[in-house]
Each structure stands twice: as structure tokens, then as C-alpha cells.
Amino acid sequence: xxxxxxxxxxxxxxxxxxxxxxxxxxxxxxxxxxxxxxxxxxxxxxxxxxxxxxxxxxxxxxxxxxxxxxxxxxxxxxxxxxxxxxxxxxxxxxxxxxxxxxxxxxxxxxxxxxxxxxxxxxxxxxxxxxxxxxxxxxxxxxxxxxxxxxxxxxxxxxxxxxxxxxxxxxxxxxxxxxxxxxxxxxxxxxxxxxxxxxxxxxxxxxxxxxxxxxxxxxxxxxxxxxxxxxxxxxxxxxxxxxxxxxxxxxxxxxxxxxxxxxxxxxxxxxxxxxxxxxxxxxxxxxxxxxxxxxxxxxxxxxxxxxxxxxxxxxxxxxxxxxxx
Length: 324
Hints:
The chain is an alpha/beta fold. The chain is 31% helix and 24% strand.
């Protein structure tokens, strides 16, 4: 077997403007890129270390370099790394390498359906109601918007955006910012505003409070990482947000989607704020998704070469020159 070379590096990509959620703001996307080479072909993978789960760029790079000398295939990665950014970057790099070696697209190698184009949600950062409404109008060519919410004032934010864009499909993401005292009111407002989906309204340790009937479907994000979480969450949520950085790469995400579907949960396929290299593997799951939230490249000041094609909010399958 040809010896493999595994290299990892951190990269910083400026955003067009600050990206603001309930936990804070950022002006750059800090990513980790892995390259796996056999001397003739190379595969790449990109991941985003996420502080919410205790990850840092330096820590993820250390994890990758720690196992680089002893991993030789995608199948053995999960024995050395827990689900997270390091496993995601390596898993996707190995999938890409296999595709480049064989000349077969990853979708076929993975037993997935042919990749499809799909409308992505476009994220409006947390801000004052009037500002979010103005941003919604500026995105009048986009049909599916996702509002980042933050607790106090979220009712006004939902009303303002709905008034500004009566034509748009709306999703909201509270990023765990609602409380047991406020969630009932905010769900009622969401129903009044015709919101399609509420993402992670409560902190993950309050999942049990979601048991029961709901006026608006609720999607788990911070509460769900891998397929192993689904049995616990199936009675508490209506949908799950599948992110490769949480699931541990495309391999883990495929398993998560299949288990969620088996339990009759709806699927959102999402990603962190990253370049097209991170979005490309996730797009292979678009055909299985009820919603996709893969607008990361649209938030960047500039993207990679051969980046994802996005036209009026529709994301197209990746160019083989980029990935897979």
C-alpha cells in the first residue's frame, strides 16, 4: 500500500460583514484544511472548530497531527477520533482522495443518490428588528431566510421581518437563547408570523421541556451530534440539523440522516460559516433534506477557486475540481 502524507493547516477567511448570533459575533471564518496525498492524487477536507463544543483551531490541528502517522483509510478514523471537526476534515479528505483515485464521484462511492441543486436558507444575523427587516428586503431575490434570534426582543424581530418580506419562507434559530418562561410566547409569535421551523430554542440540557404538542415544528441543533443521539431526541423534536462538523464527517452524517429518517424526523443539512470546501460534502445530502442551510460561502468576502455555484439562493452540486 502506498504511504500517505497527511497535512493540516489553519486558514482565516474574512466575512462580508459581522456574523452575529446569541453567543457572540465574528468577522472571520477560522477553518482547518486537511490534505491527504498518496503521491499521485490528493484529497481535501475542511472543518470548523467550534468553541461551543470546546474546540479550537490549535486543538483540532493537534488531534489531526497526533493520528496522522497511523491512519491509512477512512474506515479506521472513528477508532482514533471522536466526532468533531478533526474527524470531519480527515473523513472528507479521504472521501475526496478515493474519488480522485478511482474517478468515481463520492455520491456514487457512498451509495447516495445523484447530487441535486437545492434552495439554501440565507442567514440574517441577530440585530435590531428594523435592521433585520432592512436586510430581509435587501435579500428580496432570496426566497428562504433564516433569522438568528437572541432572546429579548425576538417577537419584534419576527414581526418586523415578516412585515418586510410577506413573500418569504422563514426559519428562525435561537441558538439556545430562549428560556422556559419565554418559549411559549415566542412559539405563539412564530406561529402568527408563519415561521416554518424553530431551531434549538432552549439550551440542550432542557430538551425534556419540549415534550408535547407544538404549534411550530422544532429542530435540534446543539442537542444533536450523531446517530446515537436520535433515540433520545425523537420524541422531543420534529427535525434535526445535520452538520458534518458535529457528526464527524460525511460518513457520520450519512448515518445520522438514515437514523433520523427511520424515526420519522425531518432533516435540515447545515454547516458552520466556512468556505465551499466545507459545504461541498454536505451538498451530497441535499436530496435527503427538507431544508438546507449551506450559505457559508455567501457570507464570505471571497471564496475558494472552483467554489460552489449559487444562483438566486439555489446551490448546485460541487465541481470535481473543488471536491468529490
